[in-house]
């Protein structure tokens, strides 16, 4: 049995990214009901909102699911206590060191997975006692690693550095990419952008349409001096880009960034002044699909490639 499927007790080794303003209970439960692992995105939820989504998840699915928890979250203590009290079984941590919280979560029987962008941090995760690792490449949307290592280069390096179950993320937008990641050493994949614009996503229709219209090169990595984030190229991005080129300080960038930029863009659909987080695979996404349709396409592509590798002469030397 696949290592990731066994770890989470799921049918397919497909994890839905816990994306801010997209990953509510409707999306996460739909992914879990299709046989993957749905994650609630706590980064855009106050504790009371998260509790509501957890209760709705419990009613919407009897399959395994979890939460994604950025460790820089301002109400982290309250969120962790809530997760424990609500008996959440799986937590994906990111944006910080896993050392402080992994042992506490695991002491309550919670499976802990941490997101990294380098083999060095993968090894630190193993030392911290996590159960699995997500290795996220430069292609990914949202907050990204400063190393700018692509998934194609990152996965084999992380695989060499640790024996933990390994999930590939960043640029996974098809069954072909899933197969490629698996052949590089990943046990499963985490997919963000495809699910961010799914029918069940809580993202605003304006944001979804902008993603469907995106072409190659329309996403850029920004805010490297603060917390690197991949964004669609809009007026807000151009403002930040010009500030960075002009040598703006971190404080100036923070002031311009302000609060609620991602909510404005992704949840409220304010396309000029909002932060529009999405991965490079946005250029491959042209229409809104249900989670079921996304799973069907992923499986069809994956099995097609598998058959080609078995039978096609182009793989014979």
What does this structure look like?
With 317 residues, the chain is of the alpha/beta class. The protein has 2 domains: 229 residues, Aldolase class I (TIM Barrel, Alpha-Beta Barrel), CATH 3.20.20.70; 77 residues, no CATH class. It has 14 helices and 11 strands. β10 and β11 form a beta hairpin. α2 runs parallel beside α3 and α5 packs across α6.
Short description:
The protein has 317 residues and is α/β, with parallel strands linked by helices. It has 14 helices and eleven strands.
Architecture of the largest domain, CATH level 2? Alpha-Beta Barrel
CATH superfamily of the largest domain: Aldolase class I
SS summary, helix count: 14
CATH level-3 fold name of the largest domain = TIM Barrel
Average predicted confidence as pLDDT: 94
Question: What's the CATH first level of the largest domain?
Answer: Alpha Beta
Stretches where pLDDT is under 50 for at least 5 consecutive residues are none
SS strand fraction: 5-15%
Structural category? alpha/beta
Tell me the helix content.
40-55%
Rg is 19 Å
Largest sheet, described in full?
A: 8 strands, parallel
Query: Largest beta sheet: what is the strand line-up?
Result: 1-9-8-6-5-4-3-2
Quick tags:
317 residues, alpha/beta, TIM Barrel, 8-stranded parallel sheet, 3-stranded antiparallel sheet, globular
